[in-house]
Amino acid sequence: MSGTSVPWWGRITVNTNTKEVNTYWRNLYIVVSSGFSWRAVQSKTRFSIMETKQVNEDAVVVQGTRATDITESCGKRKGQDTDEQVNSRKKRKSNGKQLKHGERYVPPPQKRNPGVSFNQEHFAETSYYFEGGLRKVYPYYFDFKTYCKGRWIGRTLFEVFTTEFRAEPLDYYKKAVKVGRIRLNEIPVNDLNITLKNNDFMRNTVHRHEPPVSGRPLEVLVDDGKVVVVDKPASLPVHPCGRYRHNTVIFILGKERGLCGLHTVHRLDRLTSGVLLFARTLEVSKKLDQMVRDRQLEKEYVCRVEGEFLDGEVVCKEPILVVSFKVGLCRVHPKGKECCTVFQKLSYNGRSSVVRCLPLTGRTHQIRVHLQFLGFPILNDPIYGSSAWGPDRGKGGLLGMSDEELLEGLLQEHRSKESLHLLDLSDEVIVEKSVVGSGDSVNNEMQVKAESLTGECEGLCTLPVISLSTGEPKPNSSISSNCKELEMKSVQIEKSDSHAEESSRSANCTMVVRDHLCGECKIVRPDPTEKELVMYLHALRYKGPDFEYSTRLPDWADENWVQD
């Protein structure tokens, strides 16, 4: 190279006998001389031994070879792999090893977006109708979805259903498999003996019935773009839970008011009525949450308790412990969380007292538990007014029994009174406590009537077709006319004479489709009474540094009110 200035990289000498290293520096010289920037050189110099050999064969011809030519000579990019290579890579990614012959492939779990709220797709699952002063929901098909839990791995579907999903008999699940209602990773299951693996995605399609709630309108007190404030009727849960989904405040606001994406600021028990506050945006929600933590929000309740309440201001600071999360049962206990409630009597009618309540903390059932401790339980409280707490019904926190004995006594009392629905128990809890199958003669008689009716329909009614793409059921238009007549008869059985006109108008809105696998379809349950839908506890006022929302007093808080 006489007479020619040799660049510094051309004068590099490597004192080594390793052939691959010499090849590396020679190829580096070609890349740099072809016009790459220094940053590109840094990224391109990290060739593997195989790549440098390929460059040596294809790119050494001319020093002026362009960078694109050299890049192409380094082998195929990831996006250029054949389908066979891509599929092979996917299989290797499954648990980091090649799947054995006959081994079931489990796709990776899908990422969930916690910010997604209920939308029109959910609201359109079914519709409401009103009957006898109650808001009711037409039965509908619903998919319960879950990923395989850690304790299920290595167990069969048969074992999981028989030990953890005992709300239905095993025979139900066998029939559900035959009609394709149980899916694993979106593939219909044909054998309950299939062994579950990590990340398995399960889908169980069921025919769902919801308990009726009060038909009183859900009044919106404020909607200013920042918050939504409603006057919640008693008997209505705030959000979907247990057997309730459409008969909840969240769904009613979405279906009837078009209010979606609301953020819950605080909650009220299902049987409690009154002021309920939602934030419209995440920013407002965070601001209100901070006020709650800083105790800048003041809540005021009114209730009606048994007997004549104490005079003057009464402060209760007893700690509260959760006994059962499944049942929602709490009690005063030294190991509980600290809390404080201020009470003041407003009136006394000779039998019961109206009491003003100011909870300074926000523990579960705080007002109800403290009133029970003081010896003045809320007049119709199905839990803390129960005789299962003993002769003094938990006054002073003295029980003389274990928590398990208390829980069993509470369930036993409501079973004998046919009022287990007041405890908002899931079907699994009821089965677990061995109270299923001990129904009363009235329910048995009604069930016989329902079975004799639906027995005529079996074999004639065809189930809705479930879409394979969406998993949602589609109405089937092939239901026979005989079946339709039987369905109308079944609706008529549930109607009372005093509400015949209203019921007829409601029943014509939607055809009730019965499901041959659904046990609820074979039972005609009595409607709850007004007394069962109301607990005499009302959230009267919610106050912050720069706002205040309140409702009018309920009828039962009137000084001269007398219980029927």
TrEMBL record:
Pfam family of the protein (one): PseudoU_synth_2
Protein function: Pseudouridine synthase that catalyzes pseudouridylation of mRNAs.
Compositional bias per record (Basic residues), positions renumbered to this chain: 88-99
UniProt keyword annotations, A-Z: Isomerase, mRNA processing, Phosphoprotein
UniProt keyword annotation of Phosphoprotein present: yes
Reaction equations catalysed: a uridine in mRNA = a pseudouridine in mRNA
Organism: Electrophorus electricus (Electric eel)
Region (Disordered) residue spans: 71-117
Record protein name field: Pseudouridylate synthase RPUSD2
GO molecular function, one term: pseudouridine synthase activity
Family that this chain belongs to: Belongs to the pseudouridine synthase RluA family.
Active site: D269
GO biological process: enzyme-directed rRNA pseudouridine synthesis; mRNA processing
CDD domains xref list: PseudoU_synth_ScRIB2 (cd02557)
Lineage: Eukaryota, Metazoa, Chordata, Craniata, Vertebrata
Chain ranges of the Pseudouridine synthase RsuA/RluA-like domain: 227-372
